[in-house]
Amino acid sequence: MSIRLFVSRDAGAVAVGADEVALALEQAAAKRGVAVEIVRTGSRGMYWLEPLVEVATPQGRIAFGPVTEADVPSLLDALASNTPHLLRLGATDEIPWLKRQTRLTFARCGVIDPRSLDDYRAHGGYKGLEHALSLGSDAILNEVTASGLRGRGGAGFPTGIKWKTVAQAKADRKFIVCNADEGDSGTFADRMIMEGDPFLVIEGMTIAGITVGATKGYIYIRSEYPHAVEAMNAAIAAAKRGGYLGDKIGGSTYGFDLEVRVGAGAYVCGEETSLLESLEGRRGLVRAKPPLPAHHGLFGKPTVINNVLSFAAIPFILAEGAKAYADFGMGRSRGTMPIQLAGNIRHGGLFETAFGVTLGELVDDVGGGTFTGRPVRAVQVGGPLGAYFPRALFDTPFDYEAFAARDGLIGHGGIVVFDDSVDMRRQARFAMEFCAIESCGKCTPCRIGSTRGVETIEKIINGERVSENLALVEDLCNTMKFGSLCALGGFTPYPVLSALKHFREDFVPAPTTLQAAE
């Protein structure tokens, strides 16, 4: 009898002991003479249950977790004898947190061996590319446009329009660039998909290349993601061996090749033109627009730049059709969004669902409230440049326009939760300090404004001329918002102004008893 086990090799799982658990399982099995096959997968995204161990049964996979090295002997004994175990969670697919999701992009993540091309194909991989090869450029563009897919990196720009612009551009060479410089606080979806289903990203980029006439692509990954770099390089090598990259991909007349480039970790290189500068070997400075990258991008050639999740959504759209994707969501926000729950939260992880779920449902119901058990006071959505929302705004649907109407951003889909012990003055100061540290320095509002912002908020914290300095901060935010060259300086005012608006009591000292009497 052989027991087939699945243990994540995702960086988040490894950080809490997944490698040690996998090794302990091997050693314990050898000691007992039990035949065990361990498949290292990506993560299911339920990080509070990692390391998660799954066992294959005729009825489907059964999950156990979180498993420590100390749990391994008793777990293996229970599996060998088919007896109950305290860490048994039941059928993995029936775990409520996982079952209520709509997993289109992350359907294979945590299920397959991310290093195996055969496993990817056995679970529906490359069906999208095969269909795309039979359609041709115009029909692919129609499908992508009809799906309503918008850039998942944060800007929300319609993907079909971007691809069509590059497809129509006249040039001797074009490029596909994947922005994997994921740097927002509380975000990890790009890393998860690259580590858990890297062929999906490759397939999406290959379809993009066929569509716009590009033969070369680059995946720009920050150096803090060594596991993702390794996974993507391994998958690219496997795709080349399998005939899905290089000349005559999939037996067609099309050629497309990919290469991973590692960035130094500058936050501003998440901005597409700074990324291009870095790819070309220069310092990551923002370029003035126009010209747009779609016309004058990498090495001066027309370039499609999309986020990891944008490319990862493409294979489903081509395999199942634009309508199957567009049927999910609301308004102009179609399809699903991989939402990342982090910060002071009980159930942190990745939750993929259709647009339209409210912020309150995500934090209170899905996330289970705070880890500390204290009341939720604020959530920041959209990374360090996102607005802070109080509980009064928890009825906001997760939708681009709904968040914009309340001066917020969806960004890359990260939600960071804070309980009632948070000091919003210091959160506002952090936003300005983050901008000051990460600014490329090219424009004055961002470079100087953020530094002055830190100084002014420090004065407010110290009780110096609070009213005058609050007015100065608001004026400074307006200058940065409308005068900065890119979104780093332009969006930094969102967390600052939202903190001032919704948590004013943290900035204005309460009147003394004598003042109140007067």
TrEMBL record:
State the Gene Ontology terms under molecular function. 4 iron, 4 sulfur cluster binding; FMN binding; metal ion binding; NADH dehydrogenase (ubiquinone) activity
One Pfam annotation reads: NADH_4Fe-4S
Q: Which cofactor does it need?
A: FMN; [4Fe-4S] cluster
- Keyword Iron-sulfur attributed: yes
The entry's keywords: 4Fe-4S, Iron, Iron-sulfur, Metal-binding
Q: InterPro entries, per this entry?
A: NADH-UbQ_OxRdtase_51kDa_CS, Nuo51_FMN-bd, Nuo51_FMN-bd_sf, Nuop51_4Fe4S-bd, Nuop51_4Fe4S-bd_sf, Thioredoxin-like_sf
SMART domains linked to this entry: NADH_4Fe-4S (SM00928)
Domain NADH-ubiquinone oxidoreductase 51kDa subunit iron-sulphur binding, residue spans: 425-470
Say which domain of life the source belongs to: Bacteria
**Record carries keyword Nucleus:** no
Q: Which family does it belong to?
A: Belongs to the complex I 51 kDa subunit family.
Q: What does this protein do?
A: NDH-1 shuttles electrons from NADH, via FMN and iron-sulfur (Fe-S) centers, to quinones in the respiratory chain. The immediate electron acceptor for the enzyme in this species is believed to be ubiquinone. Couples the redox reaction to proton translocation (for every two electrons transferred, four hydrogen ions are translocated across the cytoplasmic membrane), and thus conserves the redox energy in a proton gradient.
List the protein's name.
Answer: Formate dehydrogenase
